[in-house]
C-alpha cells in the first residue's frame, strides 16, 4: 500500500450528505491542519455515468482527505476507487453505515452489513485497484440484531480481505421506520462495542463515531480506540476543532482566531465566485458561507453573526466581505 506523511487518523470529520462538500472542507482546514476530512458519499453510478470532475474535484489544501463511496458492485467500486486515487485522494472509504431508505434502494449503506462476504469482495476489488488505504465505515448492528458478535464477525470477515481501518458508528441502524435523523438519535449508543473491537482486533485501526461533542469525550474514547470521528458537532460548532492540532497531534503552531479564519477564507471565496459563479455552475456566496454559520457558536453575538450571514438580500450581492460585516456586528467583536 502507498504510504503518506500525514498524521494518523486520531481525529476526523465524518462524511455528511449536503454538508461536507469541498467548500466546507476548505473552511475546516483553516481551523485544523491535521484532522482527516471526508467527502460526502459519492455513488459509483455518479462516477461511472456522471460528471467525474464535479464529484471529485477538491482543493489541494484539503489533504489529508478521503473519498467515501457508496456502492455494492465490486467492479464498479474498483473503477470508482481508481478514479479517486487518480484525482489525488488519500483514502477510499466504503459506506456500510447509512440507513436511509433511498440508499438501501441502491443496495448499499448499512444494509450491506447483512452481507459481510459481499463487502469483503468489494474491499478486495478496491484494494487490488489502488495503492491508497481502503477503509470501511459501518454501524454496530442492523434492526433488532444488536449482539456484539454480529459486528465482531462483520469486522473479522472484512479484515480477512485486507481492510485495516474500521470506523464504527456505535449505534444500530434501523432500516425501516426511522429517518436518518432518528437513526442518529434513537438507537442507543454503545461505545463499549467499539472498545471491544479494539481489544479483539488489536492489529486493526478502530475509530469510533456517534454523538461525540466535547474534547473530554474524545479524550475518554482515545483511551480505548485509535481515533475519533466527529459528525454534526464539527459542523455546528467548528471552532471546537481549533485545539485539535496541539492537543492530539503535538503541533504547537499558533491557533487561528475566528477573525483570522474569516480573513483566510476571503481570497478563496472571491476566487471561487470569480471562477464558478459566472459560468453557469450555480455557485453563489451562500454555497460557501452556509458552512460557516456555526463559527461563532458559544460566544456573545453568535446570533447576530448568523442573522447577517443569512440575509438573502446581502448574500445576493455576492461580496465575500459580508463575512467581515457579520463579525463586526457582533457584540463584543469576536476574538
From TrEMBL:
Q: Which organism is it from?
A: Noviherbaspirillum galbum
Q: Which InterPro entries match?
A: Aldolase_TIM, DUS-like_FMN-bd, DUS_fam, DusA, tRNA_hU_synthase_CS
Q: What does this protein do?
A: Catalyzes the synthesis of 5,6-dihydrouridine (D), a modified base found in the D-loop of most tRNAs, via the reduction of the C5-C6 double bond in target uridines. Specifically modifies U20 and U20a in tRNAs.
Gene Ontology MF, one: tRNA-dihydrouridine20 synthase activity
Cofactors per UniProt?
FMN
Pfam family membership, one: Dus
Q: Which residues act catalytically here?
A: 98 (proton donor)
Q: What class of enzyme is it?
A: oxidoreductase
Residues that, per the record, bind FMN: 15-17, 68, 137, 169, 209-211, 231-232
Please give the family membership noted in the entry: Belongs to the dus family. Belongs to the Dus family. DusA subfamily.
Write down the chemical reaction(s) this protein catalyses.
Answer: 5,6-dihydrouridine(20a) in tRNA + NADP(+) = uridine(20a) in tRNA + NADPH + H(+); 5,6-dihydrouridine(20) in tRNA + NAD(+) = uridine(20) in tRNA + NADH + H(+); 5,6-dihydrouridine(20a) in tRNA + NAD(+) = uridine(20a) in tRNA + NADH + H(+); 5,6-dihydrouridine(20) in tRNA + NADP(+) = uridine(20) in tRNA + NADPH + H(+)
Magnesium: is it a keyword of this entry? no
Q: Does the keyword Flavoprotein apply?
A: yes
Gene from which this protein is expressed: dusA
Enzyme Commission no: 1.3.1.91
Task: Fetch the PROSITE patterns from UniProt.
Answer: UPF0034 (PS01136)
Q: Where is this site: Interacts with tRNA?
A: 95, 181, 184, 303, 306
Q: Which UniProt keywords apply?
A: Flavoprotein, FMN, NADP, Nucleotide-binding, Oxidoreductase, RNA-binding, tRNA processing, tRNA-binding
Start and end residues of each DUS-like FMN-binding domain: 13-315
Signal peptide interval: none
- Protein's name according to its UniProt entry: tRNA-dihydrouridine(20/20a) synthase
Amino acid at each position: 500500500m502507498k504510504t503518506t506523511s500525514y498524521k494518523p487518523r486520531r481525529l476526523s470529520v465524518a462524511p455528511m450528505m449536503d454538508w461536507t462538500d469541498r467548500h466546507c472542507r476548505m473552511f475546516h482546514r483553516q481551523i485544523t491542519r491535521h484532522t482527516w476530512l471526508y467527502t460526502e458519499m459519492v455513488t459509483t453510478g455518479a462516477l461511472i455515468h456522471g460528471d467525474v470532475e464535479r464529484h471529485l474535484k477538491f482543493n489541494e489544501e484539503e489533504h489529508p482527505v478521503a473519498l467515501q463511496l457508496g456502492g455494492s458492485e465490486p467492479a464498479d467500486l474498483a473503477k470508482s476507487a481508481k478514479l479517486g486515487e487518480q484525482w489525488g485522494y488519500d483514502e477510499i472509504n466504503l459506506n456500510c453505515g447509512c440507513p436511509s431508505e433511498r440508499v438501501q434502494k441502491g443496495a448499499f449503506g448499512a444494509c450491506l452489513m447483512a452481507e459481510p462476504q459481499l463487502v469483503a469482495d468489494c474491499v478486495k476489488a478496491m484494494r487490488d485497484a489502488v495503492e491508497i488505504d481502503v477503509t470501511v465505515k459501518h454501524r454496530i448492528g442492523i434492526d433488532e440484531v444488536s449482539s456484539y458478535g454480529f459486528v465482531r464477525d462483520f469486522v473479522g470477515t472484512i479484515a480477512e480481505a485486507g481492510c485495516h481501518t474500521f470506523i464504527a458508528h456505535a449505534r444500530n441502524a434501523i432500516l425501516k421506520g426511522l429517518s436518518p435523523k432518528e437513526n442518529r438519535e434513537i438507537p442507543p449508543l454503545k461505545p463499549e462495542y467499539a472498545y471491544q473491537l479494539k481489544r479483539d482486533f488489536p492489529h486493526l485501526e478502530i475509530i469510533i463515531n456517534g454523538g461525540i461533542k466535547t474534547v473530554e469525550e474524545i479524550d475518554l474514547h482515545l483511551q480505548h480506540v485509535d481515533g475519533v470521528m466527529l459528525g454534526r458537532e464539527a459542523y455546528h460548532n467548528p471552532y471546537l476543532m481549533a485545539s485539535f492540532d496541539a492537543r492530539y497531534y503535538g503541533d504547537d503552531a499558533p491557533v487561528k482566531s475566528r477573525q483570522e479564519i474569516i480573513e483566510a477564507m476571503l481570497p478563496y471565496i472571491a476566487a471561487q465566485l470569480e471562477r464558478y459563479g459566472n459560468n453557469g455552475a450555480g455557485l453563489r456566496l451562500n454555497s460557501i458561507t452556509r458552512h460557516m454559520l456555526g463559527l461563532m457558536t458559544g460566544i456573545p453575538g453568535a446570533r447576530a453573526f448568523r442573522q447577517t450571514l443569512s440575509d438573502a438580500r446581502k448574500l445576493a450581492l455576492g461580496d465575500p466581505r459580508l463575512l467581515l460585516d457579520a463579525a463586526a456586528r457582533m457584540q463584543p467583536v469576536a476574538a
